[in-house]
Amino acid sequence: MDDARDSLFEAPPLSEQERMVEAVLFASAKPLTVADLHARLPHGCDAPAALELLAKRYEGRGVRVVRVGDAWAIRTAPDLSFLMTRETVETRKLSRAATETLAIVAYHQPVTRAEIEEIRGVSVSKGTVEQLMELDWIKLGRRRDTPGRPVTFVVTRGFLDHFGLSSPRDLPGLRELRAAGLLDSTPPPEATAPRESGAQNELFVPSPPEEE
Amino acid sequence: MDDARDSLFEAPPLSEQERMVEAVLFASAKPLTVADLHARLPHGCDAPAALELLAKRYEGRGVRVVRVGDAWAIRTAPDLSFLMTRETVETRKLSRAATETLAIVAYHQPVTRAEIEEIRGVSVSKGTVEQLMELDWIKLGRRRDTPGRPVTFVVTRGFLDHFGLSSPRDLPGLRELRAAGLLDSTPPPEATAPRESGAQNELFVPSPPEEE
Amino acid sequence: MAEDFMEGPARDSDPQAVAERLAAEALIVDVEGFEGPLDVLLTLSRTQKVDLRAISVLKLARQYLAFVERARELRLELAADYLVMAAWLAFLKSRLLLPPDPEEEGPSAEDLAVHLAFQLERLEAMRNAAAQLMALDHLGRDVFARGEPQNVSRARKVEWKATILDLMKSYSRLRTRDDFRPFVMDREGVWTMEEALERLRPLMGHVGDWTDLMAFLPEGWDVDPARRRSATASTFAATLELAKNGRLDLQQDKTFGPIRIRGRSAGSA
Q: Which domain does C223 fall in, by range?
C-alpha cells in the first residue's frame, strides 16, 4: 500500500510481508519453500521472518501454518479434522444413461420403466434406476392402472432442490431448448402427429387420463 | 436449527465455533452457505455470529472473509493480486454480446430472453446463453407469470463469487440506473399506454421540428 | 418508404446533408462491427454530442436513413432488421413532421420518439454497466480461492454431479433422434378412432333421438382446441364406421351444419 513496494531496495514492512505470505500460501495448490516465497515476494523480503510471524498469529486458530518437509502450507488444525469429513467428496459426472433416464422421468413423469426404455431405445439397467433413487432424485410414483399395474417413476423434492427448480413445470420446453441453441438438429415433428397413433396402440395400452 | 435449545448437548463456546468456521471455510474452495455450515458444525452452533467474528478478525489481512450471496468464502485480498501471477488461470475473453447479455441479466433479473433482445435490439445469438450458463454465471429463474410462461434468467452465486459481489444489490451503479428509470421494464408505446411517459417527459424535451 | 430521403443528390449542396452522408460513409466502413440497428443508432446519436434524453430523434432518423441509403448505393447487403428499422424510422419521421392527427389512434409520434430515446439510453447504460462489471476484481485473476482444498478423511464419498444443462441437453438429444420418436407426449392430445369406437358402441343402443355428434366427445376433450379437434375427427370417423355397419344414421342439414346421429335398432334396419 505504501510506496515501499515500488522501491528496488526497500522491502515492504514486515507486517505487509506477513500479509503477502498469508495470501500466497492460501492460494497455492502446493506447499511453498522459502525459495519459492522469495521468488514471489517483492525484492528484499524476509520470508522466514514473515512465516514466523504468520505462524504465531495462527497459533490456536482453526487453521495453522505448518512445515511440510522443507516447505510451508496452511492447513486446518488437527483437532478439527472431524469437521473435514465432508470436504472429501469426489464429484463425478453422472453417466449418459443416468442423465437421459433422469431427463425422461423429469419431462414425462409419471413414467414406467417400459416407457423409459421405449424413449431411450435401449433397456434401462437396474443400476441406473437404483443410482437415481439413491441420489434421491427419483422415486416410485403410483402404479399405472394398466395390465400388470407397472410402477411409475417421478422426480423428488430433492431433484427440484438440486436443479434449482420450483416445480417440474419449470423445465424448459422443447421450443425454449431450441431457442437457447441447445437443440439445433432437425426440428422434431409436431407434438401431436396422428400418424403415430396406430403404432402407439400396438405398443401401449392407453392409460386413463390422469389428473394433473 | 432452532431446536438447538432443546439439545441435550451444549454448543461449543462461540470462540470455538469461530475456529471451526475458520477451518471449514479455509478448506473449501467454494463458498459455503450458513446452512452448509450448520450442517457441518456441532449441533446448536450459531454460524452467523461466528462468521461475523471471523470476518472482523480477518479485516486488513492477506486473506478476507467475504460474503457471496447467501454464502461465505475466504478469498485473497485484491490488492495482493500482483503476487498471484502463477495462480492466474487464463480465461477466455467474453464477446461483447456475452458481456452485454450478462450485464442485462445481472441488472434486470429476472429477465426473459425477449427482454434481453428488446434491450439489445438484436436477437441473442446461439451459444451466448449457453456459454454464460456453462460458466455458471447465469441460470434459469422462475417462469414469468405472463402468457406463455417464458423462462427467466438470473445470475448465480458463481457469478457473485467471480466478481466479488456480496449480493446483486452491490452491482456497480445499480442505484443510479434505477433512479434514472433505466431498469424499468418500459414497454414500447405500441404495447400499452406508456406508464412512464409522465416521468420521462420531464426529462426529455421533445426536439422542435427541424427545418427541411 | 418516404421519398424525402431518397432525393439525396438534389440536396448535396445542403451542408447538413453532406455531413450526414459523410457520417453514413464512416459507418459503412465497419457495418460488420455493429450489433444490429439499435447499435448503429447509438453510434449515430453520439455525433449529436448531447444527453441521450435530449437527442433529436428526427435528426437521428435522417442520419440512419442516409446510412441505409448509402449502403444501398454501395450494393451492400444489410440484414433485414436494418431495413425494418429504416422503414419504421421513415414512418416516424413523417409523423414527427406532420401536425398530429386528432383522429389518429395509438401512441403519438412524440411517444414513439421518447421511447426510442429511452431504448438508446438504456442500451448505452447496459454497455457501461457491462464495462463496469468486467472492471471488477475477477476470481482467478485478481482474487483467489483456496489453492489446496483439503482432503483429510480416507473415506471418500462420491458425489454425482449433473446440471440442468446436462439434463436439457440429453433430453433434446433424445427428442431429436431421427430414427425414433417418443410417443408419450404425443398421445396426450390424440383421441384415436379405436378409442372413439369403443366409446360410441355401447352408447348407440340408447340414442333414440337425433343427437349432436359433439355430445359424444369424451369428457374433458372439448376445451383444449387441439384435443377437441382430434376427438371430433375420430368420433366422426367412428360414426361413419358404425353407420357402415348399420348401427346408426347420420344427418346433416346443410354444409358445415351440425352433424347429428341416431341409433338404429335391429328392427328398423
A: 193-263
